[in-house]
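User: I've been trying to design a sequence by hand for this structure and keep getting stuck. Would you show me what you'd pick, starting by listing the structure so we're on the same page?

Assistant: Good idea, let's start from the same input. This is the structure you sent:
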């Protein structure tokens, strides 16, 4: 017999968000602004961070474990706030889960659609730039060869320790970006959710070593807008004002006290313009 009872007007269950570590906090900042009445459960898999140096099979397993844990805690929707996990696992997660799944994507589309004849640097983990889902995304761009993919090993490890100073990444940026010295760069895509935390460091390096617009792009705002569309269309909205002051529950596979301290500090860093 079909259940014809009307769907409740509001759904006060929390929304789940997960990342390999702290990077998803940059996504969560946008979600908190876009959906002011919602509560969130955030899981950082800090014990296994970074995902970017793991195999696709390992990333898939870790992503499935994180998603299952959050679903078992009763979330009404799931946000994959990790570019590497999105590339490796989003199709499998959408097939196996009964809740809507929204993911962050590298913002190469707006970067490539912006006017200019300079290159677009796509900064991401080595795993993200090598996975088929990202390669297919790049291939759909108007001029795929305009995009230069740069695997930036080491950045995530440093941010996972809470290091985000403007001069704390000069060595890594110099190592990875020196081959493009003096190049005209119209856009720089922050293709890992950890990277918005060091936007000032990347801007500083770009201003000293590149010409062109050098505008930064990330996919977090687009992810927040997409989540809102999904929540609205499926009538999953929480009651107005129900979120309260403590809107974010933090979970981690690492040391909880140490990790939550860093997470809360990163969550307060202003979003780059």
């Amino acid at each position: 017999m079909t259940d014809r009872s009307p769907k409740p007007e509001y759904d006060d269950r929390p929304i789940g968000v997960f990342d390999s570590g702290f990077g998803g906090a940059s996504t969560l900042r946008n979600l908190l602004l876009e959906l002011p009445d919602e509560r969130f459960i955030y899981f950082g898999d800090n014990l296994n961070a970074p995902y970017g140096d793991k195999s696709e099979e390992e990333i898939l397993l870790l992503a499935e474990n994180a998603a299952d844990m959050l679903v078992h805690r009763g979330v009404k929707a799931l946000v994959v706030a990790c570019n590497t996990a999105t590339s490796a696992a989003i199709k499998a997660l959408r097939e196996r889960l009964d809740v809507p799944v929204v993911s962050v994507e590298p913002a190469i589309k707006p970067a490539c659609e912006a006017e200019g004849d300079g290159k677009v640097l796509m900064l991401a983990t080595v795993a993200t730039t090598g996975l088929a889902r990202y390669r297919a995304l790049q291939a759909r761009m108007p001029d795929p060869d305009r995009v230069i993919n740069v695997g930036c090993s080491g950045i995530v490890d440093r941010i996972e320790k809470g290091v985000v100073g403007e001069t704390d990444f000069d060595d890594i940026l110099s190592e990875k970006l020196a081959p493009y010295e003096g190049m005209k760069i119209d856009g720089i895509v922050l293709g890992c959710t950890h990277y918005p935390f060091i936007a000032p460091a990347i801007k500083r390096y770009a201003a000293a070593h590149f010409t062109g617009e050098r505008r930064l792009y990330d996919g977090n705002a687009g992810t927040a807008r997409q989540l809102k569309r999904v929540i609205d269309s499926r009538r999953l909205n929480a009651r107005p004002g129900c979120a309260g002051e403590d809107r974010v529950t933090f979970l981690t596979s690492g040391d909880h006290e140490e990790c939550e301290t860093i997470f809360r500090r990163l969550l307060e860093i202003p979003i780059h313009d």
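That's my pick for every position. To get oriented when you compare it with your attempt: The radius of gyration is 19 Å. The mean pLDDT is 94.
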